[in-house]
Design brief:
single chain; globular; eight-stranded mixed sheet; alpha+beta; binds ligand MTE; binds dioxothiomolybdenum(VI) ion
């Protein structure tokens, strides 16, 4: 089934925050940003700006009726700056005017004097200064210190990975409308309507029931709107509350790139010990997370880094330590993979280092150490229904690893200025929020008297197709045609206390809640049908193609007639469903538990061609075998896998965030920050889903798919590295993503190639 949003998107008829018709008298807000990365505010005078043409008001932290605090996990983040600014672009004041242009024009009349403080942008420097958000955490298995003695080879190294701009098509934004008695209705482009509701209530000093948040869909989130949609919605709400007028606040691209957080850059040190045959015995790793200027989701992301420290491999002795390091950059935040990709890049780099030193193929080390059934992760959980080897072997057979790597060799032997490279990338990703409490979801289903159905859940549609998947689940559970089902907006008055749509759990959890709700309704309707057909056992009733069937035979009773009759007999046609992922827990004092409902597996092989004159490369092909369980929707899942792969490759190769020493983002526009376009996209992205791979741990035997495929993109780094080595075998390999053409060219030609 095709995603019902697609025709709307292609015709430009799907509605986003900025497309919504606004009520009469709507005002427009613009955010005045801090010009300094770190400093004490000496003077802030907005008096003159407030009298500007068309300006309705200029608000600062002093105008906040409730708490000036938007931190969700750790309360360390002001909505509007108080005494200190911590990053360039930090919101300082909010100008509200008749147009956004008028609001921005008033910026020049804001007087802001700042006493500069030293700005830190490097996480290792922050670590040395002791400016950590929480004390470092360590996951451990076996005894690393003892294991070194048994190793035939020990390698060490350093790995750096850059951040990543989300570059969702729709920038951050919200419209807030005052309703009666001090209430506010907020239309927000958020992955977390409840998050917006909770924090807006805090900022306004109102109970949560006074705040209603509504989200139709968002134009991409990728994690960037999990937490960081909240401040903009709160600012719009604050202005609407103060001025008693509707207020719209939508960032333009430049504002969005400068002011919002991105994927965390990491810097890491590793030590890897192996037996002669490539068996990994010990892994010691330290992750320095560049967390940015406030905690945001950094501690949760750090936790997921630790959970994915060993990726798809079993290592008997592990010590993984990680630290959240404050810096004076816009607070880094969730981004597809949530800290997992950063961890996997380090271990793959360690494996490459070992392979290079031991003159082994990385593939031998990778394959030898893949997870087997019942292997234990450093966090104590045993892998169940392990498909790591199955994915690897199916990929090997299906795509012919031998032939691919032989082709690379013969091509490289025959060509001087063009070189090819290839790399395999296995992935194992845990599904569930690692904060157990968040693994719950609710749904509300109404059957209307004409037999049509409205479904509300906590899931937010962001292009990942969750609404289509939920529609399929509802239609299937009620056994009616999908055309009868409509997915309503995500609204805090219909689905309360929801988790953000994140951690790839949107369809898993909300889908199950919908199933539960639909089962409630269909149970009542079947009992009624049995009664109408003078039959004892309601279990003999089935609804197929909108008709009631009795013991397999079609009757004359239609779905519509049944629903109408139920209404006439005063039978409840609505139902609320609730789902909480069972049997998961995690003990943070021991750092052990069973945090995930299950794991997703897969293997990708990436082939690239390097132009050794220019340092540019093309990604020729990415072949994937992926474990999607029993897919809820093949087209959507393929789209998720393909999109994830390309986004992952972008992170590894061309997407480069460059900051000046004083904390200014220099790559702050689409002319300086490059995301993969259609020309860069691999000519071949071939995704094969495992067959007969049902997953009893998720709704209708499916598996979550949103994030895992991004990590296949990591293979591109190592494929390019292979090609670089083929041109210059004496060059020292380095692990410093993104691997931009500039870095490649330096490696190929500089006398002493150095890591930038
Ligand atoms: N796909 C599209 N098109 N747009 C997005 O913003 N976000 C990703 C992924 N796929 C995203 C996407 C992220 S970060 C997550 S966590 C999941 O979708 C969230 O949706 P799900 O839980 O329904 O998979
Ligand atoms: Mo996704 S990074 O969990 O929003």
């Amino acid at each position: 089934m095709k995603n019902f949003d697609v025709p709307l998107h292609t015709k430009g008829r799907s509605v986003f925050v900025d497309d919504m018709p606004v009520p009469e008298g709507t005002l427009y807000a613009a955010v005045f940003p801090s010009p300094a990365a770190h400093g004490r505010i000496k003077k802030l005078d907005v008096g003159k700006a407030g009298t500007g043409e068309g300006v309705a008001a200029v608000l600062t932290c002093k105008d906040i009726p409730g708490q000036n605090q938007v931190g969700a996990i750790i309360q360390d983040e002001c909505l509007l700056a108080e005494e200190t600014v911590h990053f360039m672009g930090e919101p300082v004041a909010l100008v509200i005017a008749e147009t956004k242009a008028a609001a921005k024009k008033a910026f020049k009349d804001i007087v802001l004097e700042i006493d500069p403080l030293p700005a830190v942008t490097d996480p290792r420097e922050s670590y040395a200064n002791g400016t950590l958000i929480i004390p470092p955490r360590t996951f451990a298995l076996g005894d690393v210190d003892k294991a070194w003695e048994e190793c035939d080879m020990i390698v060490e190294g350093r790995v750096d990975s850059g951040g990543q701009e989300h570059y969702y098509m729709e920038p951050q934004g919200a419209v807030a409308v005052p309703v009666e008695d001090g209430g506010i209705k907020i239309y927000s482009s958020t992955q977390s309507p409840t998050g917006v509701q909770r924090i807006a209530a805090r900022v306004l000093g109102q109970p949560m029931h006074k705040i209603e948040v509504d989200t139709r869909r968002i134009g991409g989130g990728f994690g960037g709107k999990e937490d960081q949609a909240t401040p903009w919605a709160c600012m719009a709400a604050l202005a609407a509350y103060k001025l008693k007028k509707p207020v719209k606040l939508v960032l333009d691209r430049g504002e969005d790139i400068k002011m919002t957080g991105k994927r965390h850059p990491y810097s890491s040190d590793f030590k890897l010990g192996l037996k002669e045959d490539g068996t990994i015995l010990a892994y010691d790793v330290m992750f320095y997370q560049n967390s940015g200027a406030s905690a945001d989701l950094s501690t949760a992301i750090l936790e997921r880094t630790l959970f994915h420290g060993t990726n798809s491999y079993f290592i008997p002795n592990v010590r993984a330590t990680a630290a959240c390091c404050y810096t004076n950059l816009a607070p880094f935040t969730a981004f597809r993979g949530f800290g997992g990709p950063q961890a996997m890049f380090v271990l793959e780099s360690a494996i490459r280092t070992a392979a290079e030193t031991m003159k082994l193929s990385p593939r031998v080390i990778q394959q030898k150490n893949l997870l087997n059934e019942d292997d234990t992760f450093p966090y104590g959980m045993k892998v169940e229904n392990c498909r790591a080897r199955r994915c690897w072997e199916e990929a090997e057979e299906r795509y012919g690893f031998e032939a691919i790597f032989q082709n690379v060799e013969s091509f490289n032997a025959a060509n001087r200025m063009k070189k090819k490279g290839a790399a395999v990338m296995p992935v194992c990703f845990g599904i569930s929020f690692t904060n157990t409490m968040m693994n719950q979801a609710g749904a509300l289903v109404h059957v209307y008297t004409d037999g049509s159905v409205g479904v509300s859940t906590g899931a937010v549609e962001m292009g990942q197709g969750v609404n289509m998947k939920i529609l399929g689940i509802a239609a299937c559970t009620l056994s009616i045609s999908p055309g009868r089902v409509k997915i309503e907006t995500t609204n805090t008055t219909r689905a309360a206390n929801t988790s953000p749509t994140a951690a790839s759990t949107g369809a898993d959890m909300n889908g199950r809640a919908v199933q539960v709700a639909c089962q409630g309704i269909i149970g009542r309707l079947k009992r009624l049908a049995a009664e109408l057909l003078h039959h004892e056992n309601a279990d003999d009733i089935e609804i197929k193609e909108d008709m009631v069937h009795l013991t397999g035979w079609k009757t004359a009773l239609s779905w519509e007639a049944l629903v109408t009759e139920a209404f006439n007999r005063r039978i409840d046609l609505s139902s609320h469903g609730y789902y909480a992922t069972p049997d998961i827990y995690f003990d943070r004092t021991e750092e052990k538990g069973k945090p995930f409902a299950y794991h997703v597996f897969g293997t990708a092989v990436t082939e690239v061609t390097l132009d050794c004159l220019r340092g540019t490369y093309e990604i020729d092909a990415v072949h994937v075998v992926h474990d999607a369980g029993k897919s809820l929707n093949f087209l959507i899942d393929r789209g998720q896998a393909e999109g994830g792969v390309v986004q992952g490759i972008g992170w590894m190769t061309m997407e480069e965030l460059i900051y000046s020493k004083d904390g200014r983002l220099l790559t702050d526009s689409s002319s300086t920050y490059k995301v993969p376009d259609i020309k860069f996209t691999p000519r071949v992205v071939d995704v094969h889903f495992l067959e007969d791979a049902g997953n009893p741990k998720a709704v209708m035997n499916s598996k979550a798919i949103g994030e895992p495929p991004l990590m296949y993109g990591i293979g591109a780094y190592f494929a390019i590295l292979e090609a670089m080595k083929a041109f210059r075998p004496d060059g020292d390999i380095f692990f410093h993503s993104p691997l931009t053409p500039e870095k490649v060219l330096n490696f190929l030609y500089l006398k002493k190639p150095s890591i930038p």
